[in-house]
Amino acid sequence: MRSTACRLALMGGVAASVAFASAALASAAWAAPEPAAPASAATQRGERLAPLPPIEIPFTKFVLNNGLTLIVHEDHKAPIVAVNIWYHVGSKNEPAARSGFAHLFEHLMFNGSENFNNDFFKATELLGATDQNGTTNTDRTNYFQNVPTSALDSILWLESDRMGHLVGAIDQARLDEQRGVVQNEKRQGENQPYGRVWDAITNATYPADHPYGHTVIGSMDDLNAADLDTVKAWFRDYYGASNATIVLAGDITPEEAKAKVEQYFGDIPPGPPVTHPNRMIAPMVGHQSETMFDRVGQPRLYKVWNTPEAGSADSDYLGLLGQVLSSGRNSRLYKRLVFDDQVAVGVNAGQNESEIGSQFLVIVTAKPGQDLARIEAIVDEEMAKLLRDGPTAEELERARTVQGAGLVRGAERIGGFGGKSDLLAESQVFHGDPNAWKDSYERVLAATPGNLTAAGRQWLTDGSYSLNVLPMPDYAAAATGVDRTQGVPATGAVPAAIFPEVQHATLSNGLKVVLAPRDGVPTVSMNLIVNAGSATDAADKAGIASLAPSVMTNGTDTLDALQISDRTQLLGATLGAGSAADYSSVSMTALSTRMEPSLALYADVIQHPAFRAADFTRAQAQQVAGIQQANRNPGAIASRVLAANVYGPNSQYGRPTTGTEDTVKALTPADAEAYHATWFRPDNATLVVVGDTTLAELQPQLEAAFAGWKAPATPLPAKPATSVMAASAQPRVLLVNRPGPQAIITAGRLTAPFDAASEPRQDAFNTALGGAFTSRINMNLREDKHWSYGASSGVRTAIGPRMFAATAAVQSDKVAESTAEVRNELTGVVGSRPVTEAELTAVKANLIQGMAGGWETNAAVMGELTRMVVYGVPEDYYAAYAREVNSTTPAMAATAAQTVVGSGPTTWVIVGDVAAMKAKIEALNLGPVTVVDVNGNPVP
Fold first, then answer.
1. Which of 306, 616, 819, 853 could form a disulfide with 669 if both were Cys (CB 3.0 to 4.6 A apart)?
2. Among 170-174, 704-708, 832-836, where is mean pLDDT lowest?
3. d(Cα 673, Cα 337) in Å, to the nearest integer?
4. Residue 521 pLDDT more than 90?
5. pLDDT band at residue 47 using 50, 70 and 90 as cut-offs
6. 246/86 Cα distance (integer angstroms)
7. Does the global pTM surpass 0.90?
8. Backbone dihedral angles phi then psi of residue 703, each to the nearest 5 degrees
9. Residue 41 has pLDDT above 80, yes or no
């Protein structure tokens, strides 16, 4: 395991070397017959080697009433005792933005405790401590030292004092001091040759949200962000007695050890239970590679596979396989690369074990000037041979002996890395059994060539990452350059952004077709827009407009869900469906060369959905799960409650488009069939097409595909008229209780319907207020105050009156202050601080120069065409858009501000910790404050 070793007395750097161990999990997915083992060289010479000796580490295990685990091993060869304490916490326990905390805290543990407020080493030096250190890795933090038996009480007092009585000794000065020490340790490590390698490997082989997705030493930003309260909370969360194991090995009896540990540690609180992941192997597929330049003398190749966790059989076998590859001059890779081809100066391969997932690494240091691609090809060739034929009996015996002999030699020591106390502690902490190390040792003794081959084939044939580290090139900058005193060069004339040509047709069945031909890539995107969405749902059928289209893509009269999936993959197509308040849609992207079979599948889904019970139930469960998830998502809660209280809960726009848990659970396949039969008809739909086709090509294909789709004789039902609740006389504030590190602030009101003549001015105004990164609201809360990652405002699309909303996710301890700032921005922009000419200059450049980029993809054009079909945006809207934006004056922006923001929000919704924020929000006098649940209902 990679670890950070921090003996303050030595100020040692990061011990980031790879520890190649062996551990376990047998899964021979590709098991060929085991090759016959040739006679070993020793056997050929007539030698009979004795087997590796058995190893026993007798122990006695106790668990104190406070949960502390004590393991005692007697070894009276010298009057010393190894004291080894493992806390089951490492960098994998660190939440986002807290990387490096486990290691930083390890440093603080050496700075003194409440009853010995001095440097820990000043005490241990007087005790004659040896083999002393403290280290942190991904999975645990340990503190260990050997002391004379006569000093055992003293060291147990010191260790128990920092376990149970540390918080009071941590102050800002010590935190700042150790933060600086750790940061210098990080700089020192990164300044070494190949010192940045582990950051690169970590980032490439683990997703950021994986427990191993950051390095042990952490990032500078996260270390800078460490504060006293968080550090103290870390101690309380992870340094309780129940999360610790203490091993006493040496000149002591179990009875003596138990009495002393109960005396010194028995009154320490157990601490809260700690959640520990068990197995999280991060999958990699294919081969990824990266090149890094560093101040190194020789090129170096690192090749990495993600492999099973320590303690599994396959991990043990992979450890042996690493020995076969690189241990000794006659090992496969060493002999080939260093002796035969003479392209490298060193090779190492093996299993780098960790608790919930490991990594197998091959590291080759090349001779100067050698090609790493050639070296990697040799590595791949030799590994392929080994995994094809398996190791010989002699290779396995050498590997077994090297590994076993190392364990035997380590058992001579009672303490330190690899000593008996270390083995017992690791086995207990990671596997719940102090004797677990023995399982791996016995597995190594019994391993066969076939075990190694099967493990290698399972884990080392796919999903690898290569890092090439090359010497820094000898580059030099030119002596002169551009004259930068003249400032940024002026931009040239902005080419006019022209929206793609739109063509129209109507099929013989009445289906309207809108086409935007684009020949950039040989694909065609299609979206069938049906003039019905959740606004048509009856109250007791709420959610059917969302559910019915999703069921449609799961089966037709002749194809089931799996067959549709296979068909889309074979065609290179994608298929989707969804709905909004005003429309439902079924979409497909197809390769232009496979247009006809793709259209046949598309038309089949639209015309002949089967609505089988199994497909319906599956989609229904997914929709319910989505609703349940939204009920726990602060942003979704805020958006839903705001809409219900701005439009009104009975308005089409005030209720959730997906329905509620109760209404969706009550829906049936017959409801979905009825929805489809009522609204999915050619005289109630428009097919929007964008891509590599022409109307002359497309229309006959559509006529053939939709020949059987006819409008029924029954007239279309009338869609309900849009209803809007009258605004209340004064703003109201709704608080939803969701304690957490962040709060969501939303503020909204109704504004005017879409109007092509005034919309460009309103876009310009809102871009300045909250529609861009540099907008007022975002710059205030994110850049100036640092209270939010992002804040914005905008007008939401709708038929009829639309909702303007400002939204900000802010840190929970600044929710009232942030709310006040949002109010200030909204009142200021219509009052004393209107949008300025300078702001409009930046807005115009942003909007106008970004138009062409906004239509780069077929999907972007499809989105605009959908707005035109559903919401009545004129097809020539963008012909004059740039001109209208460019002619916007501050006075016009002020008029737009009055239209959009007006007298301010009619409703505020804030989702956060009600107990902490309610009084502060009331003090802002925004309006009456009511606590509501996630559905907007008042909480008694």
1. 616
2. 170-174
3. 68
4. no
5. low
6. 6
7. no
8. -60, -40
9. no
Q: Distance between terminal CA atoms of the chain?
A: 53
Tell me the residue type at 575.
L
Average pLDDT of span 28-41: 33
Q: Which two tokens stand for residue 181?
A: 């020490």
Instruction: List the beta strands (DSSP E) in 624-768.
Output: 685-691, 732-737, 742-751
Q: What is the pLDDT of residues 437-474, one digit of tens each?
A: 999 999 999 999 999 999 999 999 999 999 999 998 88
- Pair of tokens at residue 654: 């005030």
Give CA–CA dist 100/221, Å, rounded.
Answer: 10
**Size of the chain, expressed as the number of residues it contains:** 940
The reported pLDDT for the residue numbered 78 is 87
Instruction: Quickly tell me which residue has 């700089």 as its tokens.
Output: 187
Three-state secondary structure call for residue 476? coil
Tokens, residue 55: 């190893």
For residue 727, which amino acid is it? Answer: A
What is the identity of the amino acid at 898? Q
User: In 3D, which of 914, 770, 876, 225 has the Cα closest to residue 498?
Assistant: 876
Residue 576's beta-bridge partner residues?
A: 587
The full DSSP string for 874-903 is -TTGGGTHHHHHHT--HHHHHHHHHHHTTT
Most confidently predicted of 12-21, 95-104, 574-583: 574-583
User: Residue range 602-617: average pLDDT?
Assistant: 96
Give residue 867's pLDDT. 94
Average pLDDT over residues 148-165: 95
Amino acid in position 123: A
> For the stretch 754-780, what's the b/e string if a residue is b when 16 or more beta carbons lie within 10 angstroms of its beta carbon?
beeebbbbbbbbbbbbbbbeebbbbbb
Give the C-alpha separation, 385 to 399, whole Å. Answer: 18
Residues 720 and 722: their CA atoms lie apart, in Å, by 6
Of 418, 436, 433, 429, which is closest to residue 144 (Cα–Cα)? 418
CB 554 within 8 A of CB 622: no
In the sheet with 287-294, reading across from the earlier edge strand, the strands are 20-21, 344-352, 358-366, 300-307, 464-471, 287-294
Is residue 621 a contact partner of residue 508, using CB atoms and an 8 Å limit? no
Q: Are the C-beta atoms of 534 and 584 separated by less than 8 Å?
A: no
Please list, residue by residue across 247-263, b when 16 or more beta carbons sit within 10 angstroms of its beta carbon and e when fewer do. Answer: bbbbbbebebbbebbbe
Phi, psi (5° rounding) for residue 128?
75, 30
**Among candidate residues 372, 384, 230, the one with its CA nearest the CA of residue 301:** 372
512 bridge partner residues:
506, 686
State both tokens at 770. Answer: 């909250």
Residue type, 855: W
Count Cβ atoms within 10 A of the Cβ of residue 578 and give its class: 0-12 exposed, 13-18 middle, 19 or more buried.
middle
Alpha-carbon distance 287 to 281, whole Å?
17
For residues 372 and 495, what is the distance between their CA atoms, to the nearest angstrom? 47
Nearest to 49 by CA among 404, 375, 577, 378: 404
Q: CA 79 to CA 57: how far, in whole Å?
A: 18
Q: Which DSSP category does 935 fall into? A: T
For 778, half-sphere exposure in the C-beta direction (CA atoms, 13 angstrom radius) is 16
Neighbours of 614 (CB within 10 A): 12
Beta-bridged to residue 386, according to DSSP, are none
CA 201, 204, 206, 212 torsion: positive or negative? positive
Q: Are 142 and 215 in contact (CB under 8 A)?
A: no
Closest CA to 587 of 862, 869, 867, 873: 862
Of 912, 901, 575, residue with least CA distance to 733: 912
Is 679:531 a contact under the CB 8 Å cutoff?
Answer: yes
CA dist list (Å): 593 to 286, 300, 445, 692, 921: 28, 46, 60, 10, 60
- Tell me which residue has tokens 């205030």: 780
